[in-house]
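Recap slide: 3-oxoacyl-[acyl-carrier-protein] synthase 2, sequence and predicted structure.
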Amino acid sequence: MMVSDRVVVTGLGPVTPIGVGAADFHAAQLSGVSGVRRISLFDASRLDVDIAGEVDLPPELAPTPRQLRAEDRCTHLALAAARLAVQDSGLDLTAEDPDRVGVALGTAIGGIDTWEENVRINVERGPGHIRARFIPMAMVNSAAARLSIEFGARGPSLAPVAACASGAEALVAGAQMIESGEADVVIAGGSEAPVVETIVGGFTQMRALSTRTEVPERASRPFAAGRDGFVIAEGAAVLILESAAHAAARQARVYAEFAGFGRASDAFHVTMPHKEGAGARRAVGAALRSAGLAPEDVAYVNAHGTGTPFNDLAETMALRAALGTAAERVAVSATKSMTGHGLGAAGAIEAVATVQAIVNGVVPPTVNLEEPDPELGLDLVPLKPRDMEVRAALSNSFAFGGHNVVLAFRAW
């Protein structure tokens, strides 16, 4: 691949339960803090599981009263993340050709709070009382459209939906826009605001959520022997992707190269991962080939690591099969142990963490991992961060429906 075709990351905008903005998010990872707490966004007293990862937006990024009336929280989080990422990149978008700026913003569910509110209104008061802005607020592509309008981005605008791999799919879509020549700059990432009664209740009924609710910050336990489910969370993250040539022309700071990606489907079950991680294994292998990496080149993997018994085992089997003997020497950690599982935002949030590991030479920990599952046999970086050189890293996103997306990043 020629330099002009290469894709680089020049801006980071995480909006997460453990920190908002690149600096705060990175510091929180290294401190091993948890963003999981008792749900405050609604009255969770009717639920068996009453914990989640929630975001505290600072005043300067909080929605205005008008935005609260006109947009869903999923869009508010996406807009906050995009503003942070654009600012972090140093881009002056008013000086860019707007036809060469694209948007790719993934979400699994979109404006679900708006859906829940208006279904309740319809049942209790009738259709004549449904909010006039219900449809545009609830549309899955609303956040992507809002970013396009906010930044005057007239290039392609996409809203990938692939359950918990949506944010990662959006980054792939952004990279492809640049590689195909459709755009010089893409505002790419994911957003999710699923902490509403219907969604938390639905996942509870599936027995997908951790029931360790006594101490909320201890509930998310990826790869632990006693893991019992994931902790749902809201959040967003946007990365600014640019062609290497465009970044060089404006003398931009480059965090890392978006070196490649791999995708594959399980074609197995709508909620269960393939029992041997077959689709995930193929996605890891495809990412290595796309990036021109050998297994021994990979220093770190930010795991999908949800904390469910089946997912963590399947992911482990996939890594061991795809990386071979190198799997035993690769540092693996699951930042969902701190942030909770942000569904469609997770892949983008974890891409930020992966890039930061490369830039700063330190791998974030998997907290709550006092007793790793002995069946897994990976180097899981428990409890504390690890200082180490990271020249190349993978970020895994695996989703309901059997969607598997693996992103490869490389030092620039």
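The chain is about 35% helix and 20% strand.
The radius of gyration is 20 Å.
(End of recap.)
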